[in-house]
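STRUCTURE:
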C-alpha cells in the first residue's frame, strides 16, 4: 500500500480521533483492488488501515482492530466479534444484517470515518 509522506500531525489534524483507528479491510480476491483503494483513502482520512483476504484474515491478523470493513462479497466469518465495529460495504440493492452499519458503493471515505467516529473513542465528542 502506498504510504503518505506528510507529517503524521498533518494527517491527524483532519481527524477527530485521538490516535489513528486501526481498520482492517477484508475482501475476497475479486474485490481486492477495491479494498486497497478504500484502505488508502481511509489512511488519507487519518486511519491506520490494512487489507486482508477473507481466507487469510483471521489467521493473518494478530492485532486488535477498532473496525473491520467487509468489502464486496466478503462475509463475516464470525471471527471478528471481539468488540470491533463491523461494517459491510454493499451494492444499494443488497440486504445484509448482523453488522453495526452498512455503507453502499461507492464508499465516501470521509463519511465512513465520520460514522466510525460516532462509535469509536475520539478527541472531540
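SEQUENCE:
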Amino acid at each position: 500500500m502506498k504510504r503518505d509522506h506528510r507529517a503524521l500531525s498533518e494527517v491527524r489534524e483532519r481527524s477527530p480521533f485521538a490516535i489513528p483507528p486501526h481498520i482492517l479491510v477484508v475482501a475476497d480476491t475479486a474485490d481486492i483492488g477495491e479494498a486497497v483503494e478504500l484502505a488508502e483513502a481511509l489512511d488519507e482520512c487519518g486511519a491506520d488501515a490494512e487489507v486482508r483476504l477473507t481466507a487469510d484474515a483471521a489467521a493473518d491478523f494478530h492485532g486488535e482492530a477498532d473496525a473491520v470493513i467487509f468489502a464486496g462479497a466478503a462475509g463475516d466469518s464470525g471471527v471478528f466479534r471481539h468488540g470491533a465495529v463491523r461494517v459491510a460495504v454493499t451494492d444499494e440493492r443488497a440486504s445484509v444484517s448482523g453488522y453495526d452499519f452498512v455503507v453502499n458503493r461507492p464508499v465516501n471515505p470521509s463519511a465512513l470515518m465520520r460514522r466510525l467516529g460516532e462509535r469509536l473513542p475520539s478527541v472531540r465528542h
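REMARK: The chain has four helices and five strands.
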